[in-house]
User: Which sequence fits this backbone?
């Protein structure tokens, strides 16, 4: 198992604050998150526009979005248990990257068919099943090796912002099919990075029966019956249902309301503005991941404050189409997402036994992030068809605020602190 050894100390300047002194092992995790989020940004941001161009209805796009997440929900706990039992983290990462990349080729193939829904639905399900373990298992690897999750996860946020803006420009020049090939190229890089990491191993002195099925089963039972785990899963389910439904249709919203921005001689089309929104949102998110520890907030209040903040952009989308206001509220969305993510991931890490850290993160990702996001896509797609895009955003905003209220039920007293940020 990787051991970070001496903790990296914060350096000087902005870049040093994101990475500290150079640590080769830590840098590989940062690169892994960067590549994963950059490669997937186009699929997340422009998928529904791509499907809309194939002639799919809002309901069909909602089903594709459901499969994009629901299939992962079904298999994520299995991925986590297999990883924890056999200690094969890097093999799972490589297989996940390879198969998900191949499965995505069904999109350009489906675009050539009269009725592309079925083939794309099948490809999406396979894509989801094999992409699902990458982030939660990588998260478990980061936390179990003693690194500060916020510093490493911030590279994913930066990548998503850069990728969203860059993919928007590529799409304008090369067409929507380019989002598929960008993902495939990214997965080639991710496989190389993942294979350079070491797998986990039992701690020195652990007996063989410490990792057998009964031991893992008891640890899992203790986790899923833990009050704080149940609360954070419920809260994150509601958060994810709310903001994933909104995120999935942001590009559709921008086109529907003809959002654009003109500054002097420069102008941005709805697609270009979508990319700028994502870049701004995730840039602020990255900074929040790095600096959140300075706030000294408990995991409970990270969930509550973060969840409240991520609901604000949905309210604004529902009541106005002013591009400047749309850009302004990205501060709430980006910072809020970072806060609630840090609260959830660290709380689950704190209440889970060491032997099931991968399983714990896949349970959180599957039961709340995946299932909530999947249902959110279906609900948002239905609302899009029945009440309209702006009204849809108002409805899902209420669900997000309900999640913040559930976060108040957390009783665990753990908190982020500044000393963690140096790891």
Assistant:
């Amino acid at each position: 198992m990787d051991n970070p050894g001496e903790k990296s100390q914060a350096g000087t300047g902005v870049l040093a604050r994101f990475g500290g002194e150079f640590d080769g092992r830590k840098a590989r995790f940062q690169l892994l998150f960067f590549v994963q989020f950059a490669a997937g940004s186009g699929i997340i941001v422009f998928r529904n526009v791509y499907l809309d161009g194939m002639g799919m209805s809002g309901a069909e796009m909602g089903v594709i979005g459901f499969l994009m997440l629901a299939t992962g929900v079904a298999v994520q706990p299995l991925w986590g248990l297999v990883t924890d039992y056999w200690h094969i983290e890097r093999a799972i990462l490589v297989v996940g990257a390879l198969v998900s990349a191949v499965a995505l080729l069904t999109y350009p193939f489906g675009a050539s068919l009269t009725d592309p829904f079925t083939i794309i639905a099948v490809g999406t399900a396979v894509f989801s099943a094999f992409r699902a373990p990458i982030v939660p298992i990588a998260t478990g690897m980061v936390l179990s090796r003693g690194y500060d999750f916020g510093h490493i996860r911030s590279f994913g946020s930066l990548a998503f912002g850069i990728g969203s803006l860059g993919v928007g420009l590529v799409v304008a020049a090369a067409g929507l099919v380019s989002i598929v090939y960008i993902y495939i190229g990214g997965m080639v890089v991710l496989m190389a990075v993942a294979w350079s990491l070491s797998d986990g191993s039992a701690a020195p002195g652990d007996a063989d029966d410490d990792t057998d099925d009964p031991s893992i089963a008891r640890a899992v039972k203790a986790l899923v019956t833990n009050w704080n785990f149940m609360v954070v899963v419920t809260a994150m389910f509601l958060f994810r249902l709310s903001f994933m439904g909104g995120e999935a249709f942001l590009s559709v919203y921008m086109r529907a309301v003809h959002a654009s921005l003109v500054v002097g001689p420069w102008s941005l089309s709805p697609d270009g503005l979508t990319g700028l929104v994502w870049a701004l949102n995730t840039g602020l998110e990255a900074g929040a991941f790095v600096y959140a520890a300075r706030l000294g907030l408990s995991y409970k209040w990270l969930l509550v404050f973060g969840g409240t903040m991520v609901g604000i952009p949905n309210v604004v989308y529902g009541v106005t189409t002013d591009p400047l206001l749309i850009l302004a509220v990205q501060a709430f969305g980006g910072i809020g997402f970072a806060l609630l993510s840090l609260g959830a991931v660290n709380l689950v890490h704190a209440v889970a036994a060491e032997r099931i850290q991968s399983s714990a993160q896949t349970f959180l990702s599957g039961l709340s992030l995946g299932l909530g996001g999947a249902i959110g896509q279906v609900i948002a797609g239905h609302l899009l068809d029945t009440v309209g895009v702006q009204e849809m955003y108002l409805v899902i905003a209420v669900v997000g605020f309900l999640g913040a209220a559930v976060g108040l039920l957390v009783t665990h007293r753990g908190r982020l602190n500044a000393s963690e940020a140096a790891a």
Observations:
- The two ends are 17 Å apart (CA to CA).
